[in-house]
Amino acid sequence: MNMNRIKEVLLSKGISQSELARRLGKTFNMVNLYASNKVQPPLPVLYRIAEIVNVDVRELLIPNQVKGKPVFDEGKEGGKPAKSGRKQKRARTSPKR
Prior knowledge:
The chain is mainly alpha-helical.
């Protein structure tokens, strides 16, 4: 599941991942992990990326959706979050070698 649009925004702005890495002071590999949604950047880094590419930070994010609906269902009392239907990962129970 995609969580951010960093790759799309970089392409639309004509900025390479290498250039972003240089300006962030990060390695190319780390920026590539951000752009491919394998690692989500910490909020301060996300804000810095938005500043570098000159967009509102919200343009870098993909709204959470559950079957085409926003996560918060306004029809429910108190705007409680809708259930995501995703199962949480189990902790590893076997010992590491």
